From TrEMBL:
Residues 124-218 bind DNA. This is Two-component system, OmpR family, response regulator VanR. It comes from Microterricola viridarii. The keyword Translocase does not apply. Keywords: DNA-binding, Phosphoprotein. It comes from the Bacteria. Residues 2-116 form the Response regulatory domain.
Length: 218
């Protein structure tokens, strides 16, 4: 999953990003509404964590613009306003969910994962294919019943491949979804991560390289 954090409080934005990284969630940070709209145009985000009161284009207008795109990312609106009428107003703007400050990080993570799961409503919360079982909420992976210890990035890549349901996922898509905007597009990181995943999952190998296209679990 890849999240765009739209928050002008730098300390809070950095804290959120650090916590998301602990849960294998890639994220980018922008501090105003104009930068948020631009970032969504050039990157493929699953969820936008949107502070309502931000400089530039107001958070309400950013939310309206994102909600107008049926194929756009989900929006989790974040604001200091916690009154019921404020929550209703945010949802009426098109936000998919609403979280008032201050909040607990476990709740934020749970809401982000719930929104991302809606994007893949045809898939069960626990992903299983060819003996590999991945639980996104417990961050556990087993292969043929054997526990497999993965790094955060390895977990993210495996989750992408499993969610594809046997379809091919390009190296560019993996890099975009599992890393952040600072990732070098010419890096061998994806190739190395796939190689490590194959070794950890063991035989029979289920991650297939599709020449010129990417990777798939088949």
């Amino acid at each position: 999953m890849r999240v765009l954090i739209v928050e002008d409080e730098e300390f809070l934005a950095d804290a959120i990003r650090a916590r998301l990284e602990m849960d294998a969630i890639a994220s980018d940070i922008v501090g105003d509404g104009d930068a948020a709209l631009f970032a969504v145009e050039v990157n493929d985000y699953d969820v936008v964590l949107l502070d309502r009161d931000i400089p530039g284009t107001h958070g309400d207008d950013v939310c309206r613009a994102l909600a107008a795109d049926p194929e756009g990312p989900a929006v989790l609106m974040l604001t200091a306003a916690g009154r019921l009428d404020d929550k209703i107003a945010g949802l009426e703007l098109g936000a998919d969910d609403y979280l008032a400050k201050p909040f607990e990080f476990p709740e934020l993570i749970a809401r982000l994962r719930a929104l991302n799961r809606r994007q893949f409503s045809t898939h069960p919360p626990v992903l299983e294919r060819h003996g590999v079982r991945l639980d996104p909420f417990r961050r556990e992976v087993t292969c043929q019943g054997r526990y497999v210890a993965l790094t955060r990035k390895e977990f993210s890549v495996l989750e992408l491949l499993l969610r594809a349901g046997g379809g091919v996922v390009s190296a560019e898509t993996i890099l975009e979804k599992a890393w952040d905007e600072n990732a070098n597009p010419f890096t061998q990181t994806v190739k190395v991560t796939i190689s490590t995943l194959r070794r950890k999952l063991g035989d029979p190998g289920i991650i297939t390289t599709v020449s010129g296209a990417g990777y798939a679990i088949r």
